[in-house]
Amino acid sequence: MMEKMGDGSTPFWLPQNQIRGVAIHFPSNSAPPPPSKVMAGSIDMMLRDLNLDAVESLPEDFDPTTVINDPLPPIANDALHTNGVKSINGKEKPREIVLGRNVHTSCHEVTEPDADDDDSGDREAYMASVLARYRKSLVERTKHHLGYPYNLDFDYGALSQLQHFSINNLGDPFIESNYGVHSRQFEVGVLDWFARLWELEKNEYWGYITNCGTEGNLHGILVGREVFPDGILYASCESHYSIFKAARMYRMDCEKVNTLVSGEIDCEDFKAKLSLHKDKPAIINVNIGTTVKGAVDDLDLVIKTLEETGFSHDRFYIHCDGALFGLMMPFVKLAPKVSFKKPIGSVSVSGHKFVGCPMPCGVQITRLEHINALSRNVEYLASRDATIMGSRNGHAPLFLWYTLNRKGYRGFQKEVQKCLRNAHYLKGRLTSAGIGAMLNELSSTVVFERPQDEEFTRKWQLACQGSIAHVVVMPNITIDKLDDFVDELIEKRAVWYGNEKLQPPCVASDIGESNCLCVKHK
Amino acid sequence: MMEKMGDGSTPFWLPQNQIRGVAIHFPSNSAPPPPSKVMAGSIDMMLRDLNLDAVESLPEDFDPTTVINDPLPPIANDALHTNGVKSINGKEKPREIVLGRNVHTSCHEVTEPDADDDDSGDREAYMASVLARYRKSLVERTKHHLGYPYNLDFDYGALSQLQHFSINNLGDPFIESNYGVHSRQFEVGVLDWFARLWELEKNEYWGYITNCGTEGNLHGILVGREVFPDGILYASCESHYSIFKAARMYRMDCEKVNTLVSGEIDCEDFKAKLSLHKDKPAIINVNIGTTVKGAVDDLDLVIKTLEETGFSHDRFYIHCDGALFGLMMPFVKLAPKVSFKKPIGSVSVSGHKFVGCPMPCGVQITRLEHINALSRNVEYLASRDATIMGSRNGHAPLFLWYTLNRKGYRGFQKEVQKCLRNAHYLKGRLTSAGIGAMLNELSSTVVFERPQDEEFTRKWQLACQGSIAHVVVMPNITIDKLDDFVDELIEKRAVWYGNEKLQPPCVASDIGESNCLCVKHK
Asked: Is the confidence metric ipTM above 0.90 for this complex?
């Protein structure tokens, strides 16, 4: 079935009523401060603020009324806030939210400093205590993280000296803008490394360091659309949600292709859907590691399918979403090689996943010939506009450059091997314990039954979908951590399923009968 | 004239031939390393790497051939690299690039570590020296920066303890995903502060912290389009380039509206263009500070124009691009107030500009009722997808929270006043020296003639367009720095224009006759 994206009907959207009614809980400390605190002597204080501070040289034509008198915006009315406060004490039941928990219940409000805060040091002390508690929670949360493909094991101490610079690679990485506080020389070094990994010559590639995997996908699909304005987007239904977001944003027609049980694209179905639209060019998203099952689409088979259906190389554009495994697959012997020697248009990978980085980032590489379909000059920047974002984080290239230099291709290979071993180990331990699990041959994502208890899921920060959950074995996941996890899971399952009222879920439809170990399939 | 965006014809794009032919210069150190270095004993080395390292417990069914033998991808052929090397020695003239300088000439290549690097410490020492030199250049570049609206004056030392966590606010700020290493509690505190600034109740707003001003604009325009799928986008021709990029990405019809000399939107022309399309809803970008001239569109007049042309409030959507002055205008008495009490749909502001932040970021606030036009559930995240990006930088909210808490509304007001004073001072010094300059009443952007010498422009990192340049007076720009700049400019002008062969440029068409001090207009 073809879906017309972005026309307002949006049939692929989930029912809107599932996501409405987000109750806003107000923190108990967000009630208006007592008038004495906000207003006491505020005019005097403002005058002092405005006139006594050492602001240099006041021009004669300067109009002091230019600045308003009381800069504090009014805050929301009492009733609303009281409502929030009461709800916490249970006197009024707060409105429920449908998905997850509402952050307003635990937010760190920004409060207006008092005039004497600077002197007393109270404010500094308050902020330091909030940050110290936060740091402690981060340590704890980092220790128990298993579900998202983020390598949390990095040490960028050598780069902390650069934290207090406002580093911005605005515009194109290959063309310096007039803003001098940038890190393009590191960014291009990183891009060269990835272009070599994916076999594209230095004078034939273009790319940039993105803010995340989604930006890479938004860019890749946009390049494809600019190359083929009337192209149809094909993506397997297990593609990352950003692919379908792109289709909607860009108002592209999109065909969702079925998947095999493994999560790979079903090329039989792909062929059938291609055949329906032979008159239109094809833009294809190929998953180098799907989000949930870590399945790697067979790039070679996708190309073969296109060729067999009569699509010549000048009538399709392939974007490889390698957010997860784009940096792992090159080191795995049996993996379909991601290479620009094949007829592909772009590859993206995340930087905060396998590499590890304090903030999300990614790398996008495409062919130089394609980028001109997209770019325009921006004189203000003395550059051109070929990226999705304008201002760009200049710290991310430094983090990536640092890690790539330290580890090198060989270092990453070692880590890939370690992850694959440990993923095998995890799968082995789960199945030995009678817990059905699936591990794709080229993957370090272990899929298994969704735990019964949300608290357990949250503690280990498992990503879940339907009846399944997964652990993505990244370089920071040790055997010890996996043992702790499996031991606790076994213990909990004994409680959940011990009285035989509840059975472990059947996951045959998700991971195949052969992998399921439920009552029926074991 | 109406322009159909994103249909492949793209008449608003600048000529493509201006941006082609980007020659790639290869650094002299990117020639292939000597074979002995890469290959010597590589098989032995690989075996040692693969087998002797302390990788825990190898499962019985693990296939060691899973990992490829030599992980080093081949590098580009000699000829290309030699070409690059030669060009630096001047033997072969490198191909010219059209805009700016090519970064490949000075990039820090990522090199593969030798096996003994770990022991010798050579690599660590090499990297430390690169970083130390880089740090020194950042100090120098930061000192001389005037042209971009970035406040480079901040001290986030208290937050450096958090740098080694992978903080990711993936998904919606108000709904926790299962990934536990996030900073939503700080993000929501920051959002609350901005919602109060722009007068929207806590239970009526939605928003998030973006990666930059562009992401805010992309989001605001997208919300507008989802509310009015057949709406026409109106934006003044001095709007930020991301607005027109959005129109192209989203395949929206776009009307460019003329501007006054000040840079403000010309509401006469706006009215005329609205009248042409009374049958279609209107999506309007209102600039709270244009990029080049710092002009503030008159929000009240825009709304009045819409009403007078027969557009009822349910037939238009206004996005306020406050990237530059969105946080300054609320403190300026004469400025048209940006407030959600007026019929506007969204406001965005940059976080790395007036606030100051090591990496680009921004804040986007919209009405909760609109966001449902955009969002969808994403079960994988246990969240919903209403943001442009998926993974989101969790450090940016911490930086913003820290500064907002320290400064408060009153602190920002003081800084706004200081910036306005200093901008007046700069304009005064320029005109006293016979240099035509313009400073919009509500602005801290001083516009003047483009310096003759690119080296001078680069030293002070001035943003230029056509015959004009500008300085954006941010809180870190002191009177001393402005004096240094003006003194040097006066000195240089004596050289450039001393022999009377060259005249200073006329900038009357850019900033108005009354502001121009060229031979003809002084």
From this structure: no
Q: What is the mean pLDDT of chain B?
A: 83
User: Crossing angle of helices B213-227/B241-249, nearest 10°?
Assistant: 40
Q: What is the mean pLDDT of residues B411-440?
A: 95
User: What 3-state class would DSSP assign to B472?
Assistant: strand
How many angstroms separate the CA of residue A249 from the nearest CA in chain B? 6
Which residues of chain B does A483 touch, with a Cβ-Cβ cutoff of 8 Å? none
Q: Of B181, B407, B422, B462, which to mutate for an interface test with A (greatest number of A Cβ within 10 Å)?
A: B181
| Closest listed residue to residue B218, CA positions, set B249, B190, B194 | B249
A44: tokens are 């005097």
Q: What are phi and psi of B2, to 5 degrees?
A: -95, 140
Among B383, B443, B467, B509, the one annotated catalytic: B443
Interface contact flag, B138 A162, Cβ < 8 Å: yes
Does the pLDDT of residue B86 top 70, yes or no?
no
Residue A403's pLDDT band, with cuts at 50, 70 and 90, is very high
Within 10 angstroms of residue B64's Cβ, the number of other Cβ atoms is: 11
Least confident of A41-50, A64-73, A251-260, B118-127: A41-50
Of A66, A229, A421, which has the smallest distance from its Cβ to B7's Cβ? A229
Q: Is B88 exposed, middle or buried, given 0-12, 13-18 or 19+ CB atoms closer than 10 A? A: middle
What pTM does this model have?
Answer: 0.85
Distance between CA atoms of B22 and B102, rounded to whole angstroms?
Answer: 8
**3-class SS letters over A63-96:** CHHHECCCCCCCCCCHHHHHHHHHHHHCCCCCCC
B443 catalytic residue (yes or no):
yes
Give me the mean pLDDT over the A25-32 stretch. 34
- From A472, A149, A511, A441, select the one nearest A298 (Cα to Cα): A441
pLDDT 10s digits, B301-345: 999 999 999 999 999 999 999 998 999 999 998 889 999 999 999
**Best residue of B30, B50, B211 to probe chain A, by most A CBs closer than 10 Å:** B211
Point out the catalytic residue in the list A443, A444, A509, A514: A443
Give me the pLDDT at residue A178, please: 85
pLDDT score of B37: 36
Cross-strand partners of B205:
B367
Cβ-proximal residues to A420 (8 Å cutoff; 6+ apart), any chain: A332, A444, A473, B62, B66, B67
**Which stretches does DSSP call E strand in A116-214?**
205-210
The partner residue sitting opposite B359, judged by closest CB among A46, A167, A202, is A167
Q: Residue A428's pLDDT is what?
A: 97
Chain B contact present for A17, CB below 8 A? no
State whether residue A40 sits within 8 Å of chain B by CB. no
| Out of B61, B184, B213, closest to residue A390 by CB | B213
CB contact under 8 A, B406 and A110: no
| Residue B83 host element (H or E) | helix B78-89
Distance (Å, whole) CA A426 – CA A483:
8
In chain A, the N- to C-terminal Cα span, in Å, equals 36
Q: Is B360 on the interface with A (CB under 8 A)?
A: yes
pLDDT in tens, A87-139: 333 344 333 333 344 566 678 999 998 877 666 788 889 999 999 999 999 99
Those of residues 241-270 in B touching chain A at CB distance below 8 A are: 241-242, 245, 249-251
